[in-house]
Amino acid sequence: MISLAKYRHTQNIYKTIIYIVCIFLSILSIFPFLTMAVNATRGTYEIQQSAVSLIPSTHLIKNFQILMGKSFNPLIGFMNSVIIAVGATVCALYFSSLTAYGLVAFEWKLRRIFFTFIMLFLMLPVQVFTIGFYQFIYQIHWTNSYWPLIVPAIASPAIVFFMRQYLLATLSIDIVNSARIDGANEYYIFNMIILPIMKPALAVQGIFIFVFNWNQLFLPLVLLTDSKMYTMPIMASLLRGDIYRTEFGAVYLALALTVLPLFIVYFFLSKYIIAGVALGAIKE
User: Fold this and answer.
1) 227-281 pLDDT, tens per residue?
2) Which alpha helices (DSSP H) does the chain contain, by range?
3) CA-CA distance, 10 to 226, in Å (whole number)?
């Protein structure tokens, strides 16, 4: 009885320590976003005096007026960012999943070589292709267009690798063979059977792709020169270019408006992530 009581006491101490660590890490993760939201309500002088504060101020409306008086247009920037981020996310998820399905569900001689060739592109940095990519886009007259920011997402080696590994762990090839015997074509099998199975994986990768394309700054800044096509990150970055005075309250407000859609996407897809974790824990 004494040893059992000691064991339970030790377990309670471990649980308490784990809870304290988790709470601390949660606060540490939320703190930068909370600081950004609070600074969006503060004036420039207040921020310069104390960059960190948890007490909201009364300059939110003034910061918004300053923001609207500059090159930042939340509505246009939001729509441009949504078009690019959603378009690139849909293309990357669908075609990468389709490629992964072809690598798992079909037997062909060059399958391993083809997969190795795809993985080789993971070792090459994006900066290597930037100059050649821009020259190619310029020659086909796609500058000041959303197409070069959406179409290349079709080829995403990292997502192909992730989807392939997920299908290898969750997909039973007997389901595919049964559908083929019933007369279903491959696109019907993929759209109606495979994609529903891959919902947790699609949600996880969808968050990463959406966040990456939403926050992307370098390539849109190179390809887009028309201010009407600027994305939210570009507009937010231009706020620091004022040669007279930088309104830090307006900058923080712009950053808060830029980050807000990412929270919405995460909370919308979080249930699929939790479902994916639970599914991976079930073994038959």
Assistant:
1) 888 998 888 888 765 555 677 888 888 888 888 888 887 777 777 666 655 554 4
2) 2-39, 44-49, 60-69, 74-105, 111-120, 127-139, 147-150, 157-170, 173-181, 186-189, 195-197, 199-215, 218-223, 232-238, 248-281
3) 64
* CB half-sphere exposure, 109, CA atoms < 13 A: 0
Q: pTM for this structure?
A: 0.81
Tell me the backbone φ, ψ of residue 205, rounded to 5 degrees.
-70, -30
Contacts (Cβ under 8 Å, ≥6 apart) of 273: 200, 203, 204, 207
Q: What is the pLDDT of residues 60-73, one digit of tens each?
A: 888 888 888 777 78
pLDDT of residue 79: 92
Q: Which residues contact 114 (CB under 8 A, 6 or more apart)?
A: 103
CA distances 167 to 5, 153, 180, 190, Å, are 46, 21, 18, 12
Identify whether the C-beta of residue 48 lies closer than 8 Å to the C-beta of residue 248.
yes
Are 205 and 163 in contact by the 8 Å Cβ rule? The answer is yes
Answer whether 87's CB lies under 8 Å from 146's CB: yes
Using the predicted structure, report yes or no on whether residue 50 has a pLDDT greater than 50. Answer: yes
Average pLDDT rounded to a whole number, residues 120-126: 80
Burial (CB count within 10 angstroms: exposed 0-12, middle 13-18, buried 19+), residue 94: middle
10 Å CB burial of residue 197 (0-12, 13-18, 19+) is: middle
Provide the sign of the torsion angle of the four alpha carbons 239, 243, 246, 250, taken in this order: negative
User: How far apart, in whole angstroms, are the C-alpha atoms of residue 250 and residue 260?
Assistant: 15
